[in-house]
Design brief:
The protein is an alpha+beta fold. The protein has a domain of about 55 residues. About 15% of the residues lie in helices and about 35% in strands. It starts with about 20 loop residues before the first strand and ends in a 5-residue tail after the last helix.
Length: about 80
């Protein structure tokens, strides 16, 4: 779903190389140039964004949240309220 005109912005950062990737809980279709994954990393949940570019994939992640907060933000992202 495209972003709503009033959507809020998430803060995206490059993940640390030393941190584990975690386990994918949910994901969007990877048929587009950008796709998202909801990942469990230890006791925390993070949203990962992958952008396909000619030079390779560019990966960014949000901060880590408790599962309930992350689930609400994941839903908001899918509905176009966050980007």
């Amino acid at each position: 779903m495209p972003p709503a005109s009033h959507c809020e912005l998430l803060e995206w950062t490059v993940p640390e190389q030393s941190e584990p990737d975690g386990r994918v809980l949910r994901r969007t279709c990877d048929c587009k140039g950008i796709f998202f994954e909801l990942r469990l990393v230890g006791d925390w949940v993070v949203i990962r964004r992958t952008c396909r570019e000619k030079g390779g994939n560019v990966i960014a992640e949000t901060e880590r949240w408790h599962a309930g907060v992350a689930a609400a933000l994941w839903s908001a992202l899918l509905m176009g309220h966050l980007r």
